[in-house]
Amino acid sequence: MQIAKQLLGARLCEATLVDLGCGSGLFLSTLETLKPLRLFGIDFSEKAICQARKKYPHTFFRGDVLGGGLPEADYYTGLGLLDWLTLEEVDCLFEKLKGKDFLFSFSERRSSLLRALHSLFVLVTYGWRSKGYRPSYYSLEEIEEIAHRRNYPKIHVLRHPSLSFGAFVSSFPLSLDYFDSVAHDYKERSESIFWKALRAVESRAIFEMVPSLQGKNVLDACAGSGFYTTRLARLMPEKLTAVDLSGEMLSRISIPGVEKHRGDVTRIDFPELFDVILCAGGLEFIADPKNFFQRMAEVSSPRSKLLLLLPIEGFLGRIYQRFHKKHGLRIRLFNRGELAGLTSDWKLEAVKNVHPFAMAVRYGK
What we know:
Elements: H1 2-8, E1 16-20, H2 26-30, E2 38-43, H3 46-55, E3 59-62, E4 75-78, H4 87-97, E5 101-107, H5 113-125, H6 140-149, E6 156-158, E7 166-170, H7 175-182, H8 186-190, H9 193-207, E8 217-221, H10 227-233, E9 239-244, H11 247-250, E10 259-262, E11 274-280, H12 289-298, E12 300-311, H13 315-326, E13 347-354, E14 358-364
Parallel strand pairs: 1-2, 1-4, 2-3, 4-5, 8-9, 8-11, 9-10, 11-12
Antiparallel strand pairs: 5-7, 6-7, 12-14, 13-14
Helix pairs in contact: 4-6
């Protein structure tokens, strides 16, 4: 419930939400601090709905979420709901959503000792009392196929270590929340022997391409917890700005004089133009790279420089890609041949391979 609340976050302010399979209403009670406009709950258990109505001031309905129309809302949630449905019923549910935003949890069908124990636990505790109920386990591909068929061109998934074999799937991006969830020890983990050595190789390649920053206005796009921000600050720019989607990551940056912005770097209105822009390990997460290049051209000064660190196609690149896919993040891999064709606003100036699976790239106006 706490992860689901975090995933909804500011989206729920002044919005309406329906919780499908709400039980006694506990999840809806946790959402009150997000200042929603209205909260609704639906459950087929009369006893659960009676308890919910006694405890909480929200609107609760007794009914089958598949049996009729759903109340109009901005968001629909279901924590554990899909575990009770067949694939045909999941398809029916997505049809009833009619393209509205949703956030559901589901149990993945993958090998796991805890998943096996979960099946046993359900059977022993209440499966025998509910006509042999067994929880449904689905692959992400099965959920995606149904969602695509029901007019959701893209869905998003988030996995988290505390969920074990569980995952969240939604109609809106969840990648921000993954980085928020790992921000507390991101710096410490990046100091491990392997990652520290890798970062040293990457940063050396990048800074061999960085021009003098004295008197320059510099942007660290997709700054994360500030690894490159710290190194840029040492080169004494006139002004240094750090941008990232994750507020938790940005909170780890405590460099005097650095201006921090939380948000999508392609949508922020900056008051000044930048002379140097660095995006190290961020472009692969952006859905439309061409939009990124265009926007960076709009916020940069004449004769500015754009420096990138990109993962490259290949065996190790695909391992890097699979690592992020495991956490619900879909990233793009790049190759030298496409670099010039990605943008007409910037001229490709230099490319350098960075072992084992990246390349440093410099563009100029």
